[in-house]
Write the structure tokens for this entry.
Amino acid sequence: MGESSLQGKCLVVIGGTTGLGLSAAMAFVREGAKVVVVGRNSESVRAAQASLGDSCRAIAGDATNPETAERAISEALNWLSGFHGLYHVAGGSGRRMGDGPLHEITDSGWEATLNLNLTSLFYSNRAAVRQFMKQETGGSVLNMGSVLGFSPSPRYFATHAYAAAKSAIIGFTKSLAAYYAPYGIRFNVLAPGLVDTPMAGRAAKDEAIVRFIKTKQPLEGGRIGHPTDLDAAAVYFMSDGSRFTTGQVLSVDGGWSISEGQY
């Protein structure tokens, strides 16, 4: 077994029934892990359970409910008497809820976007740390960020509450990494560019944005990312191969954060 192997680990993926979370959960299972995945939609939960098989427990829950992550971790403990890592993927655009440029953001849009992307992550990270401390073991927490948290793109992606939430995730994660390092608990962030997920449906169908991405994400001829592009990094951060890595932000963005992008 290589260091990237997840054999014997039980991992929880919040937002693990579609898109990036499901793709990662499938990679975790291929590497030997057992996974508990959480999703809001009962149909996606059933589909995830079917695709992941006996190595998975898929449960329905809202990540913005503080009890959801606690329930998922309890499921891992009851199922396998173990909990080794948390991957928080849940979140999404607040555009339909009132997010946008600052002068257009509604109060409710701001609150809903931060609740969906930041408060939900606070709940899951807190639940994970409490369990790791109770177990007196180390563990790994991986949080989903975004290049928009530090590399803005004003013409096509001006959702400022979302950017604020993703930027806050970086500061939050680094602060946790510093505090909990003596306990062997690692915290890291994955920051994707534009990836073809249900959340990215608007952008993926916009011809102007697709043309823009050809120069903004120039790797492999310039394309929108695939969920599988992040799988290897997620496996690394959940594995013992990352045992000496904490407080890091890894951009898996096709070159977004170092490219100008041409309109």
Remarks:
- The radius of gyration is 18 Å.
- The domain at 10-258 is CATH 3.40.50.720 (Rossmann fold).
- Helices lie at 19-30, 42-52, 66-80, 107-135, 160-180, 201-204, 207-216, 231-238.
